[in-house]
Write a structure and sequence with these properties.
The chain is an alpha/beta fold and 348 residues long. It has helices at 3-9, 51-71, 92-104, 120-127, 144-163, 180-192, 203-213, 265-272, 280-283, 286-292, 300-308, 310-324, 328-347, and strands at residues 14-20, 25-33, 39-40, 43-46, 77-84, 110-111, 172-176, 195-199, 216-217, 230-233, 252-253, 276-277. Helix 10 (286-292) runs antiparallel to helix 11 (300-308). The two termini are 35 Å apart.
């Protein structure tokens, strides 16, 4: 594995590898950038067949967190943890205590939170051995509702720019993935009067959305073929790729998943097709905004107000994209680089 080549590709600062023989804990902590402040990013706990895939996942996700924090105006950089889920039986609490001890040794450069495969209960275990954790039950709790709130506001901004509408009532949104965030997004969208189609690898989750929100259930392989106004990818990354983009039958792609573009060129493909894409790290910042406020004294009302501003961020990106004929992901990247550049000059 050409580790340093991967770090150069992703413009990286540091990667830390952790191992605990007693618990079987293996983790990768990627700290992308700390120019604006200590890094924040969730702890992903999933099985990986290849350690290189786990490393690339950590690198891409951490970079996205840097960009997400910068666009949200937070005094933080980006980081991410990938814990490799053991293939044998394991003691979950022991595994997370071992990770917490490793995290404490990083000296405050990185704070973790929940992510795919982890929950508030895991953050509580971490809190018992380290201060470098947010999103606990005694703090801001589950960030999913705030992520969903921000995505709903981002969808409203896209609809205003692309479709000239100030309401989602009557619009059709196809949601890929109705887990933690996807479920709360469906709840938000249903309350606005939107019509929903949903797909999930877990049929029980899709059926719940059908029962509670009147959503039409679609096979997971067919969600990109659904005629809709908005496609909302809310599952794992790389959903937008050579295979799926030609099948999209909506004018807008705006969802909660991280790293939706399999490669950056897929942002160009969406733009060339006239599809308005809301960059994932811009639209899904609500959860990060929520947990980051723990570090200055948590206030749920303040978290909600800051999350609602996702509308302004997405609208600015969409309008700049239209006026300059530039793909939205490139516009968003330029905004981030401006903020990071200012942060570096102010620190020097």
């Amino acid at each position: 594995m050409d580790l340093f080549h991967l770090l150069e590709q992703h413009d990286f600062g540091a990667v830390h590898l952790g191992r605990d023989a007693a618990s079987g804990m293996h983790c990768i902590v990627a700290i992308h950038d700390t120019r604006l402040g200590p890094a924040i990013g969730g702890c992903r706990f999933l099985p990986y067949d290849d350690e290189r895939d786990a490393l690339v996942d950590a690198l891409r996700l951490a970079r996205g967190m840097t960009y997400k924090a910068a666009l949200a105006g937070l005094p933080h950089g980006g980081g991410k943890t990938v814990m490799l889920r053991p293939k044998k039986l394991f003691d979950r609490a022991a595994l997370f205590r071992a990770f917490g001890r490793f995290l404490e040794g990083l000296g405050g450069r990185y704070f973790t939170a929940e992510d795919s495969g982890t929950g508030v209960e895991d953050m509580e275990v971490l809190r018992g051995v380290t201060r470098q954790v947010v999103g606990t039950g005694g703090g801001s709790g589950d960030p999913s509702p705030f992520t969903a709130l921000g995505v709903r506001r981002g969808i409203e901004a896209c609809v205003a720019v692309k479709l000239g509408r100030d309401t989602l009532a009557g619009l059709h949104v196809a949601v890929q993935g109705v887990g933690h965030v996807g479920y709360h997004l469906c709840k938000e969208l249903h309350a606005t009067g939107a019509t929903l189609s949903v797909a999930d690898v877990d049929p029980l989750k899709a059926e719940r959305a059908q029962r509670e929100f009147g959503a039409a259930v679609v096979p997971i392989a067919d969600i990109f073929d659904v005629p809709c106004d908005v496609l909302a990818p809310c599952a794992l990354g790389s959903a937008l790729n050579d295979s799926t983009i030609p099948r999209i039958r909506g004018a807008i792609v705006a969802g909660a998943a991280n790293n939706q573009l399999a490669e950056q060129r897929h942002g160009d493909d969406l733009h060339s097709r006239g599809i308005l894409y809301a960059p994932d790290y811009a639209i899904n910042a609500g959860g990060l905004i929520n947990v980051a406020l723990e570090l200055e004294g948590y206030d749920a009302g303040k978290a909600r107000v800051k999350t609602l501003r996702v509308y302004d961020t997405i609208r600015e990106i969409a309008e700049r994209s239209q006026s300059t004929f530039t793909p939205t992901y490139r516009v968003a990247d330029l905004l981030v680089e401006e903020k990071l550049g200012r942060g570096a000059s102010e620190a020097s």
